[in-house]
Specification:
about 210 residues; alpha+beta; 7-stranded mixed β-sheet; two-stranded antiparallel sheet
């Protein structure tokens, strides 16, 4: 009797988990004075919202890039290269390549289940020199088009992506404004995670047997 009660509880619970939609919204605003990077995760028909704000990154300009303050400790160690260490490195590389191939297949299947509701990507760029600004504008268009073009045939789109690059020929400026909202079923996400884990365990076991046979 207890078995049937547990089964009657588990079946609808598994169904609810599988068909639960997860919404993820990415907000990315970046200019020379202020940066705002935020991730919003909303399950249960967006009744709940979990927000994560990325700490500020010090942007040094187009020439110097971004600056991160990090604490590190350095110490001198003696490194010995042996036959075992070389075999371990080779085994690690082979396992990594297997995981990349497995991940590409799993991610392709998962992305087909993803629905993009909104994607806007706007860049404003300028160096103060008209010729340089024109070249950088073309590069920005190429980057945006390639990024969106990579995902465009892999996911489902409710609205077409909106891309824009605004050149500023009078002063140095660089700013980004990115918005994206997409959703997927939790069941497909869990299935992809289990497939990746299974592929990792199989690859690890196969390489272990191969090393034992050497």
């Amino acid at each position: 009797m207890l078995f049937w009660v547990i089964l009657l509880i588990l079946i609808p619970l598994i169904g609810v988990i599988w068909y639960t939609n997860i919404w993820i919204k990415i907000i990315f605003d970046w200019d020379h004075e202020e940066q705002h990077i935020e991730l919003i995760i909303s399950p249960w028909f967006r009744w709940l919202k979990f927000r994560y704000v990325v700490p500020k990154i010090d942007w040094q300009g187009l020439n110097q890039g971004a600056k991160l303050k990090m604490k590190s400790s350095s110490r001198e160690e003696e490194v010995r290269i042996t036959k075992d260490s070389i075999e371990w490195f080779k085994d690690s590389v082979d396992r990594l390549l297997d995981q990349v191939r497995n991940m590409a297949h799993v991610s392709h299947d998962f992305l087909q289940r993803v629905v993009c509701e909104e994607l806007t990507f706007q860049t404003q760029v300028g160096t103060g020199d008209a010729a340089e600004t024109g070249v950088i504008t073309g590069i920005c268009w190429s980057i945006q088009s390639n990024l969106v073009g990579f995902f465009y045939p892999k996911v489902k789109w409710e609205t077409s992506p909106h891309l824009d690059v605004i050149p500023n020929f009078t002063r140095p400026v660089f700013s980004l404004a990115f918005r994206s909202t997409f959703r997927f079923r939790l069941g497909y996400f869990l299935k992809a995670g289990l497939r990746l884990l299974r592929g990792y365990l199989r690859s690890k076991e196969a390489h272990k047997k191969a090393r034992m046979n050497i």
